[in-house]
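Input/output pair, single chain:
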Amino acid sequence: MVKLKKNERNILLSFASRVDRNDSGALNNLGVLYFRKGMHEEAIGQFKEALKIDSKFDLARENLQYLFAETKLEDPDVSRWKAEVEKDPGNAELVLKLAISYKNMGRFEEAIDVLMKAVKLDPGNAMAKLHLGSVYKTGGLFNEALEQYLEVREEVGKSAVYFTDLGEIYYNLGRTDDAIKELSTAIKMDAGYWRSHFLLSFAYGDNGQLQEALEESRVASKLNPSYQNSEANLALGDYEGGKGKDAAGYAGIDAGSFESPSYTLGVAYVERGLIKEALKEFTKALSEMQEKDRVYIEIGKIHVSEGNTVKALASFLKALELNPQSAKAFRLLGGVYHLSGDYQQAAVCYLQAYRLISNDADVMNNLGVLLYQIGLKEDAERMFKQGLNTKLYHMELNYNFLNCYLLKEEYMMAENLIQRLEAFMGKSTVLYEKRAMLHYKMNRMTLALFDIESAMSMDRSHSDALYLKALIFLREEDFESAIAAVQEAVKINQRYTGFSFFLSMDDHVRLKPSMVGTDLPIEPDDDLIELLQCGVNRNFDKIRDLLVTILDREVERISGINVAPPERVEAVDNKIEISCQDDGEKSEEDELVESAFKEKD
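Output:
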C-alpha cells in the first residue's frame, strides 16, 4: 500500500471539494485516485456518492466491488447492519439491509444466505425475493433467478431495470421470444438504459432479425455509460496495469504522481516494445514501491509475451506470495498453465480468480475457453455472454463468442455478430479474416477474396488470411495459386489458427495473441470436468485444497529463480509457444491444404 505523507494526504482530500459533486464520472475517477493512493475509506465514499447520483452507473459499482475484493475491507454498511441484526435478529427489514450490503460488496454467497433468512422471516417481502433473484442471476443460477423474479412481478415490475434483468434471464435460459418481449417493455419504460438495447441486440440476433440486432447494438454503443467516453470514466482493473492518465487528471485535478518513477517508466517502455529497458526499470521499482506484487505482475506479463514459462510462473507466484487475494495474478498464472497444457492447475487458478472477482471479463473469457475445450460448450457460451454483459468491448470475448457460432455453423448469427463487432470496434485484420471465413463457408468466393485482400492490406503477416486464400483457390481448382498461397503462409506460421480461441493475458501482447485450440490435445478427465462444473455454479469447496497444493509445490519447484534481470532462460523445455494447441486431428482446412501439395507432387 502507498504510504502518504500528511501534506500529500491533505492535498488529495482537498480534491473532494474541487470536483463537481453532481458529476458521477468525476466522483468515480476521484475514487480510483483515492484507491490507488491507499485511501480506501475515502474511495468507498466517492464510489457510493457516484451511485447515489446515477444508480445505473455500472462502472462505479464494479469499482466498488473490486475495491472490497482487493482490500478485504468490510463495508461500513455491513458492519452497521450486522450489529443491528445481532440486536434484533427477527427483524426482516434489518436482515434485508444486511443482505443488500453484502450484495453491493460482491460477497454473493453471504448475500444469498442472509436473503434466504429475510424471505423466511417475511415470506411476503417482495424486495427480499427480488434481490435474491438478482444474486442468483449474477451466479448463473437462472432457473432459480426466474422463480424469484416472477413471484414479485406484480409488486415491483414497474422499472426498466426489472424488465431488463428478466429479459437477460430468459435469454440465458434460451427463451429468446420471451427475452425480446421483456426487453422491449424495458425500452418502452426507459429508452436510455443501455443494457436493455445491448441484450436485445443479442436476442434479435438469435432470432435471425439481423437488421434490428445491428440497430440495437448501435444504440447500446452510444448509450453505454461505462464506454461511451472511454477516456472519461476509469476502472480500477484497467488502472492496475499502469496504463493511461492518472485519475486526478481525468477528474480535472492537477496532481503529481506518487508512483515509483521506475514503475511508470517501465510501463511506458512496455507500451513502446522496449522490453529489456522495461525489465531494468521494473527491477528498480521493486526496491522503490511497497506494492511489489504489482511490479511482479508486470514482469510476469513480459515473460509471457516472450514465451518464458518458468520466469512467468515465478513472477506471478511471487505476486501471490505478497498479495494472496490478487485475482489478476491468479488469472495470469492460470493462463500460463493453460498455454503449457496443465489444464487442472489452470482451472484451479481461473476458479480462484472467479471466486475473488465474479464480474471480471478477462477471467470469464479464459474460463469460457477452457469450458469449451473440455466439451462444456453451452456453459462456455453462457460464460462468454456474462463476460460481454460486464464489458461490452472486450476484444477476446467478442471474437471467442463469434467463433462459437462459426464452429456451430450458425452463419446468420455469425454475420450479425460480425456486423456488431464492426460497429463497436471498427475494422481490423482479424475481423476481415473472420468475415472472409464466413463468406467462404457460405460459398461467396468473390466477397471472401475481397475481405482477404483487405486483411492483408492491413497486415501482410496475417497467415490465416493466406491459408483461407489457398482454400478458395482449391475450391476453384486453381492448384498452382493455392500452393503459392500456402507456401507464403507457412513462412509466417506453420499452422492455420483461424478457429483458435483467444486467452486474455495482457493488452501489450495482443500483437502476438495467446491462442489455444478448440479441443484439448488429450481427453479431459472426469475430475477436471467436475471441478469446472462446480466452479461455474460457484461451489468453490473443491478448489481450496487443490489451490494450497499447487501453490506450495510450485513455489518449491521454482524457488531461487530471479525473475527481474533481463537475461532469458534458453532451455527449450522452459518455453511455450504463444499459438494454438495442436489437437492431433486434421481439420477440413488441413486436409484441403495437404491435398494441394499432393496435386503439386
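Strands lie at 501-502, 515-516. Residues 225-231, 239-258, 566-601 have pLDDT under 50 and may be disordered.
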